[in-house]
Design brief:
With 492 residues, this protein is α+β, with helices and mostly antiparallel strands. It folds into 3 domains: 300 residues, no CATH class; 114 residues, no CATH class; 58 residues, Orthogonal Bundle (Arc Repressor Mutant, subunit A), CATH 1.10.10.410. Helix content is 41%, strand content 20%.
Length: 492
């Protein structure tokens, strides 16, 4: 618990209250163009270059709904177990920001594309279902950039490139009871959106943004407390910190005899506090009315079925399959399905090697260590799934030792070469020829008379010493099973 939180209310006082949290999550859809025009959605373009009369809201410009955006929204809704409405409508949400040139946002109000869904989360071996109230589509506003701290050198800039970028807003039921549950929900949601390729969910690029509605009430009370909305939480860590602070702040206000005001608050990273920004808007403040330039969106059963048929496996289902089919632990399955590319890399490695558990150990251990050292993601891995699977297959057949496999893997990571090429080039193939091994074993026994005497005197553990010496003399290339058999025979 951060210092500001601890100063507001003790854990003991906070424990008297129940926290109620609902999230509103904006996910930027991974379409090539914007939702109502053909402008690109590419990140990092020079300011105000990815714009046109439609996304700038110029007079006479008419929006045309992107089919790709609708299908991505449908995929997201299906992944969240929502019911997709046969007819949904767009509305104008009126408000005035410097980065909203139209003076309104095209969103969905009382007839969203999907509603009544759920997403399961897991925490410490327990499972909980979080309800999804609705999923609706909308276009994004631009971006305001603020620089400077003193009045004399404070500047604000507006970049309109993001105007019209397609979003879905996912609104949950107030089912979460702690910042940990909110963190777990956002983690599961992000994985799900990435797996179905609806969004990259890169928070640094604004592709996943979260607002949290927070209230507290005494345990056992039925009536919900007054909520405050904490806006624009752009990292999982800040989400948890902001929620912990806001929970403690509300408890402290109530304990001091005050009352919570319904308002919008921002989280200040530097101070670790939430700060009041404005009174919370209600629906009537936005003066919603049907968007006159767009006809209702009609989604047939046949269209839904085509989208559903193309849906990839969801992370929760994949975790379950990894534990059932590959006999992996829950920890390993969670680790390997945290990222879709990682899960696919593991499955390819397991298929080629024939040993899923060994594949999991190498992906989570040796490969992860190499990627971290090189500062790379698994998509840019210098060792392909094919090569890693071939290495583990050779090791599994007993053609190379575990130590030699590690040595070959290091060379694979440095050069990108497949294992067969490295083994052939550097003469690293395992020695299984009895004649060649026998000479190495004889030399090792002759060089260690003291240990020979100890072994024949009954100290059987000395066998491991001789095995180690033979492996060292053979540069790790001796077949361990053959070495053990030869040593037992020759040592008597």
């Amino acid at each position: 618990m951060s210092a500001p939180v601890a100063e507001l209310a003790s854990r003991e006082v906070i424990s008297k209250y129940e926290t109620v949290i609902g999230l509103e999550v904006h996910v930027q859809l991974a379409t090539a163009s914007k939702i109502f025009c053909s402008c690109p959605t590419s990140f990092g373009a020079p300011p105000d270059t990815n714009v046109c009369p439609v996304c700038l809201g110029l007079p006479g410009a008419l929006p045309v709904l992107s089919r790709e955006a609708v299908e991505m929204a449908m995929r997201a809704a299906m992944a969240l177990n929502c019911t997709i409405r046969r007819v949904s409508r767009f509305a104008r949400k009126n408000y005035f920001y410097p980065d909203l040139p139209k003076g309104y946002q095209i969103s969905q109000y009382d007839e969203p594309i999907a509603e009544h869904g759920w997403l399961d989360i897991s925490m410490d071996g327990t499972h909980k279902r979080i309800g999804i109230t609705r999923v609706h589509m909308e276009d994004d506003a631009g971006k305001s950039i603020h620089e400077g701290f003193r009045d004399s050198d404070r500047y604000s800039y507006v970049d309109l490139n993001r105007c019209g970028t397609p979003l879905i807003e996912i609104v949950t039921e107030p089912d979460m009871r702690s910042s940990d549950e909110a963190y777990a929900f956002l983690t599961e949601l992000k994985q799900t959106m990435q797996f179905i390729e609806v969004s990259a969910c890169d928070m640094e690029k604004g592709q996943l943004r979260c607002d949290a509605n927070v209230s507290v009430r005494l345990k056992g009370a039925e009536k919900l407390g007054t909520k405050a909305e904490v806006k624009n939480l752009n990292s999982f860590r800040f989400l948890k910190m902001a929620l912990d602070y806001e929970i403690a702040r509300q408890v402290a206000v109530i304990e001091a005899g005050g009352r919570i005001v319904q308002e919008t608050r921002l989280y200040d990273v530097a101070s670790g506090e939430t700060i009041g920004m404005r009174s919370k808007e209600s629906a009537h403040d936005y003066r919603y009315f049907p968007e006159p330039d767009l006809v209702p969106l009609r989604i047939s059963e046949a269209w839904q079925e085509r989208v559903r048929a193309a849906m990839p496996e969801l992370p929760a289902k994949k975790r379950e399959r990894f534990m059932t089919d590959y006999k992996l632990s829950e920890y390993d399955a969670n680790w390997l399905t945290a990222d879709r590319v990682v899960s696919e890399f593991f499955e390819a490695t397991a298929r080629i090697s024939g040993d899923p558990k060994e594949a999991a150990n190498w992906v989570m251990g040796d490969l992860a260590a190499v990627l971290k050292a090189q500062g790379k993601e698994i998509a840019d891995s210098p060792v392909s799934a094919q090569s890693l699977g071939e290495l583990l297959a050779v090791k599994g057949k007993g053609e190379i030792s575990g130590k030699l496999a590690k040595e070959i893997f290091a060379k694979m990571a440095a050069t990108g070469d497949p294992p067969a090429a490295i083994i052939e080039r550097e003469g690293l193939k395992q020695i299984s020829d009895t004649g060649a091994l026998e000479k190495i074993v004889d030399d090792v026994i002759a060089a260690n008379p003291k240990q020979l005497e100890q072994y024949r005197g009954g100290k059987i553990t000395v066998l491991a010493f001789f095995v180690g010496q033979v492996m060292r003399a053979s540069r790790g290339q001796a077949n361990p099973a053959a070495v053990n058999e030869l040593l037992r025979r020759k040592l008597g």
